[in-house]
From TrEMBL, chain A:
GO terms for molecular function: ATP binding; ATP hydrolysis activity. Residues 2-247 form the ABC transporter domain. SUPFAM superfamilies: P-loop containing nucleoside triphosphate hydrolases. This is Fe-S cluster assembly ATPase SufC. The keyword Cytoplasm does not apply. PROSITE patterns: ABC_TRANSPORTER_2. It comes from the Bacteria. It comes from Sphingomonas turrisvirgatae.
UniProtKB/TrEMBL annotation, chain B:
Pfam families: SUFBD_core (PF01458). GO terms for biological process: iron-sulfur cluster assembly. Residues 118-331 form the SUF system FeS cluster assembly SufBD core domain. This is SufBD protein.
Length: 247, 360
């Protein structure tokens, strides 16, 4: 579903990704782990198309399309979802308005009929309920005044509503207490565990992987994948540290 | 011709005024605009008045309680003083209310001047909605007097395609009375909104604010002041400026609190949004406080759209132009949300959205 080949990227002229190669097939969950500064978040932003993250070499193919050729909103319409480590606050724009606009923009781009206000609200309420988010929060401005955990839960509600084919989740576990971690983990499994979907989990710690079992674990260090293995690799990392395993 | 008496930009109060485009507007020859005045009325019950080049147009009017009469008003304001002669008056007796009064000002070129008076007796309630369209220089003076407990809601939208609109509001607000005026500049003319609101009665409420949106080389500005002459008054000055291209918005707002006007609660919020690095927003917040037991908050900021928010929205599937429009809409909504009547508020927001579609 996603093929990254020899990807090089830089920020402000400073190389961060230095020849990253990775293939994720449909039906798989991959975890990318690695020390601070390895380029984990950069990988997420490059795949999402964030301005300022310049690709200097390599290729990314998503579902047969050249991903790097698409504008950020086109990547979303193609089925890519980027879960942010730090979800952005947008004062004055309600969650409902933001999400309905997002979903309907994607639907229009795919030549599907936009959802009416009532249809959308029904969908949004259902997703909020399964993630145990108070439906009142849908009316509030996007992420404004939300706690760290509420912001992450809101990311999952968004993912549930947008129903992507491929999700890149950047440190979705940070800022979550143990109950929220379970709810978010269940959410990821429910929304994304399907034969025609795939997930790239970017994480620092093993703990989210207790809830979302990865099929493949990669270690990212200094802009490259330095080691790939099964779920046992995450446990090994947790036990022995990155320095040991990546060396 | 009144151009000889215009103020000078050397005068501090007029330093940002676009007097050149006012002069140019005043000299444009009259020419049909092709605009049907009826299209500028909102679908509301109540009196409707149409003025074409400042002259009453009965064919498109049903004045109801509004009278047309000669007004010779005392005004020291340099532009306001030019608006004398035939004008309109809304006078309400105690404890009466009217349906919303709508006034359309259509200009075809040259200069036109029109005075108006609103007198609300005790507990009178009125809503007045004005729309400006066409070209040329339209100059207005409003004197309002609000008796005890009276309430005036005033909403003004500037939609002229070109030219210049200047408006001067002067109001005396009585005990527990409330004057709320909201302006939207979403046309392509220059503008100057002047106001002087006096809180003369105890517990008076004065509000003047709005959103001025400019593009191309357009310049719009407000220069407004609230004077608290009595205790326990409240004032709100919430203005939003959005400047695209090489345009300029200037916001000058002043709150004055007299020595005995204790317990005054004043709030001033001036915020500018630059859509291009070539655009300009000037802000001039002023507080002049002589009383010692008052609460006066003020804030003035200028910035650009939040790039992180833009990318966040795009990453969810919203195209860039639409994401910018949503963020800008949210930015001006603060000011337009002050319009109490829902239908009027929606109409003004729709005008702002049309502007955003064209400018972004």
């Amino acid at each position: 579903m996603l093929q990254i080949n020899d990807l090089h990227a830089e920020i402000d002229g400073k190389p961060i990704l230095k020849g990253l190669t990775l293939t994720v097939n449909a039906g798989e969950v991959h975890a990318i782990m690695g020390p601070n500064g390895a380029g984990k978040s950069t990988l997420g932003y490059v795949l999402g198309g964030r301005p300022g993250y310049e690709v200097t070499g390599g290729s990314v193919t998503f579902a047969g399309q050249d991903l790097l050729d698409l504008a950020p909103h086109e990547r979303a319409a193609a089925g890519l979802f980027l879960g942010f480590q730090y979800p952005v606050e947008i004062p004055g724009v309600s969650n409902v308005q933001f999400l309905r606009e997002s979903l309907n923009s994607q639907r229009r781009a795919r030549d599907e009929a936009p959802l009416s206000g009532a249809e959308f609200l029904k969908l949004a309420r259902a997703q909020a309920a399964t993630l145990e988010m108070d439906a009142e929060m849908l009316k509030r401005p996007v992420n404004v005044g939300f706690s760290g955990g509420e912001k992450k839960r809101n990311e999952m509600v968004q993912m549930g509503i947008l129903n992507p084919r491929f999700a890149i989740l950047d440190e979705t576990d940070s800022g979550l207490d143990i109950d929220a971690l379970r709810i978010v983990g269940d959410g990821i499994n429910r929304i994304m565990r399907a034969p025609d979907k795939a997930v790239l989990l970017i994480t620092h710690y093993q703990r989210l992987l207790d809830y979302v079992k990865p099929d493949v674990v990669h270690v990212l260090a200094d802009g490259r994948i330095v080691k790939t293995g099964g779920p046992e690799l995450a446990l090994e990392l947790e036990r022995e540290g990155y320095a040991q395993v990546a060396a | 011709m009144t151009l000889a008496t215009l103020p000078s930009p050397r005068d501090e109060a007029w330093r940002w005024a676009d007097l050149d485009s006012l002069r140019t507007a005043a000299q444009t020859p009259q020419q049909s605009t092709g605009i049907d005045p009826a299209s500028l009325f909102l679908d509301l019950p109540g009196p409707r008045l149409t003025f074409i080049d400042g002259a009453f147009e009965p064919a498109h009017s049903r004045p109801g309680a509004v009278q047309l009469t000669r007004l010779d008003m005392n005004a020291s304001h340099p532009l306001g003083a030019l608006a004398q002669g035939e004008g309109w008056v809304l006078k309400l007796d105690a404890r009466t209310a009217t349906d919303p009064v709508q006034i359309v000002h259509l200009a075809t070129g040259g200069e036109n001047h029109l005075p108006a008076r609103i007198d609300l007796a005790e507990d009178g309630v009125a809503t007045v909605i004005e729309s400006y369209a066409g070209r040329g220089w339209s100059n207005r003076l409003l004197h309002a007097s609000l008796g005890k407990g009276a309430r005036l809601m005033r909403a003004v939208r500037l939609l002229q395609d070109q030219g210049f609109v200047s408006i001067r509001d002067e109001a005396s607000i009585g005990e527990a009375a409330s004057y709320v005026a909201t302006f939207l500049g979403a046309g392509q003319s220059g503008s100057r909104i002047d106001g002087f609101l006096r809180c003369d009665g105890v517990g008076a409420f004065a509000e003047m604010g709005g959103a001025l949106l400019t593009r191309g080389e357009q310049r719009q500005e407000c220069a407004v002041a609230v004077h608290h002459a009595a205790p326990e008054g409240t004032s709100r000055q919430v203005w939003r400026a959005v400047a695209a291209d090489a345009s300029t918005v200037s916001l000058a707002a002043r709150a004055e609190v007299a020595r005995h006007a204790q317990k005054t609660d004043g709030e001033q919020s001036l915020r500018g949004l630059l859509l291009k690095r070539t655009s300009t927003v000037n802000l001039k917040p002023e507080l002049e406080i002589f009383a010692d037991d008052v609460k006066c908050a003020h804030g003035a900021t200028v910035g650009e759209l939040d790039r992180r928010a833009l990318f966040y929205m795009q990453s969810r599937g919203i195209p860039e132009a639409q994401a910018k429009a949503l963020l800008t809409h949210a930015f001006v909504a603060d000011a337009l949300d002050r319009i109490g009547d829902e239908a009027v508020g929606e109409a003004f927001k729709a005008d702002a959205d049309r502007w955003l579609e064209a400018a972004l």
